[in-house]
């Protein structure tokens, strides 16, 4: 096997570089055929991954070291090319690491590396695909596509001047909770129309809509407990803003990983979902922001090979 390591040294406020140093030290002491490349700027992981098929000598597996955003870009790059699918593997080095949770990859770099080196067959995972007819834009999501509450928190947190400092001092969760409380009181309701399995449902006062590819969001919150990354299906959870008390209850259920059992929540599950949202809202796609806008989404599924043995349950 010939591996290409793609590293975002800045992910997780510098964790990417620290993880790579550990991995590099180990690889250099073994008989392993590998190359490596650093991503230098936002968007670079996508470009580097898109060139994988043309590399000579050919590579058998692209190993990404970074956070969920870097992994998302690498998958997008691989899926953009017509070349035969190059299997991917992942060593988490971000702050949230939700994909690693969803696929069961260790957050200990050398254990995650062994999951790759000991692997013997490709594992097929589901990748969520979206087409926004409104913005004439298409893309993928590995973790989730959120609109409303969670996306407004991502926006507030990403633009917080204290983010770097809090992450550096392992206080990122506090920043997230603080922003969540603020958004809870300021985020207005919006209209959502969902079409699923031939039926349309209208929510005049939706508060959040999260489509998930595996159970986790926001650094380990369980938002879709029945969702599995190896099943060709997506889960959309919609929460309504009925009144302050029920909304507060729903958000507490969200924070404690029980949102799907809240009476304000509605769950839709299928390999194809469409929904429209008005007026303009914040969105988040695997933690990155597509901007505040009106959405008209069609979600579908496709599969992709991962070269990594998941940890035992
Ligand atoms: N050399 C670089 N300098 C700055 N940004 C980069 C570089 N390489 C990649 N990026 C961009 O950094 C963004 C965020 O990366 P990523 O999500 O992996 O890290 P993170 O935000 O620290 O982790 P998490 O998403 O878990 O919080 C990605 O959009 C990626 O394109």
UniProtKB/TrEMBL annotation:
Cofactor: Mg(2+)
GO molecular function term, any single one: kinase activity
Coiled-coil intervals: none
Keyword field: ATP-binding, Kinase, Lipid biosynthesis, Lipid metabolism, Nucleotide-binding, Phospholipid biosynthesis, Phospholipid metabolism, Transferase
EC number: 2.7.1.-
Domain DAGKc: from-to ranges: 1-134
Top-level taxon of the source organism: Bacteria
Record field: transmembrane: none
SUPFAM superfamilies: NAD kinase/diacylglycerol kinase-like
PROSITE patterns registered for this protein in UniProt: DAGK
Gene3D superfamilies: 2.60.200.40, Probable inorganic polyphosphate/atp-NAD kinase, domain 1
Pfam family, one: YegS_C
Homology family: Belongs to the diacylglycerol/lipid kinase family.
Protein name: Lipid kinase, YegS/Rv2252/BmrU family
Record organism: Limosilactobacillus oris F0423
Organismal lineage: Bacteria, Bacillati, Bacillota, Bacilli, Lactobacillales
């Amino acid at each position: 096997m010939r591996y290409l390591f793609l590293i975002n040294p800045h992910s997780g406020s510098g964790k990417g570089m620290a993880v790579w140093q550990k991995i590099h030290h180990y690889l250099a002491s073994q008989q392993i055929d590998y190359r490596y490349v650093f991503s230098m700027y936002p968007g670079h992981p996508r470009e580097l991954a898109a060139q994988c098929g043309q590399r000579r000598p050919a590579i058998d597996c692209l190993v990404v070291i970074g956070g969920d955003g870097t992994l998302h870009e690498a998958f997008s790059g691989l899926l953009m090319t017509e070349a035969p699918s190059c299997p991917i593997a992942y060593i988490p080095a971000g702050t949230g690491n939700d994909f690693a949770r969803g696929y069961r990859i260790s957050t200990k770099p050398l254990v995650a590396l062994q999951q790759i080196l000991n692997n013997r067959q490709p594992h097929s995972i589901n990748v969520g695909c979206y087409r926004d007819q409104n913005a004439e834009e298409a893309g993928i999501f590995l973790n989730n596509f959120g609109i409303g509450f969670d996306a407004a928190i991502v926006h507030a947190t990403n633009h917080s001047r204290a983010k770097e400092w809090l992450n550096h001092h392992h206080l990122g969760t506090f920043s997230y909770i603080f922003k969540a409380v603020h958004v809870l009181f300021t985020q207005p309701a919006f209209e959502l129309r969902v079409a699923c399995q031939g039926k349309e449902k209208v929510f005049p006062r939706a508060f959040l809509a999260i489509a998930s590819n595996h159970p986790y969001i926001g650094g380990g919150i369980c938002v879709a407990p029945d969702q599995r990354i190896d099943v060709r299906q997506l889960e959309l959870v919609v929460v309504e803003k009925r009144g302050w008390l029920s909304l507060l209850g729903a958000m507490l259920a969200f924070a404690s990983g029980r949102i799907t059992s809240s009476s304000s929540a509605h769950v839709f599950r299928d390999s194809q979902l469409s929904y429209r949202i008005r007026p303009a809202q914040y969105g988040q796609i695997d933690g990155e922001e597509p901007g505040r806008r009106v959405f008209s989404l069609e979600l579908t599924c496709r599969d992709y090979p991962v070269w990594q043995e998941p940890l035992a349950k």
